[in-house]
Amino acid sequence: MxxxxxxxxxxxxxxxxxxxxxxEGSPTDRALYALKExxxxxxxxxxxxxxxxxxxxYYTNVWAVTRMARHVVxxxxxxNASVRDHRLIEELAAxxxxxxxRTNRNHLSFASKFAHFFIDAEKFxxxxxxxxxxxxxxxxxxxxxxxxxxxxxxFLENFVNLKxxxxxxxxxxxxxxxxxxxxxxxxxxxxxxxxxxxxxVFRLFNDSSKEVQMLLDDLGHR
Length: 222
Known about the structure:
By secondary structure, this protein is an all-alpha fold.
């Protein structure tokens, strides 16, 4: 498949160098991986800690943290939980209401982050609207898979297609970092100071050092 906008392994490496500059080695991610090691499994106590950590550190807007933890425990103990594909993310994202009825509210961002950090980082890239837009940017509207009813499935298919088409040798985590940061950079170039990005990223994009500017040049395909 020919990409609308080419992508190289060097650009992935550059984005991850920027990620290190941004997060000083990603202390948030290190903390989550440490939590996985310290509290393996999916019992209620362990899951409650994991849900609270993801929600607090990544601002996933889960208001009913304890209910979400019980929901995750229920999903992970179902017979089909071993089928670790997009269906698991969709089940985790569909938090029932307090009365047990289904709701239209979909915690897709939370579910993908929970699965990425605590189930399988290579199978489950983190869903993010900026990352999803970057996939379409590279693949093109005609080639990108689209299915509004199953957003994570389409995200995953586009993710795999991009990695294959660009012949990338990076890990899921590394491509994840590129898509997120490049997506934010495109938003910042379009909207400037009005861009809805966090303070740390805004500061990085305004860094005038030669090292950062060279990496941003690659990130922005200039």
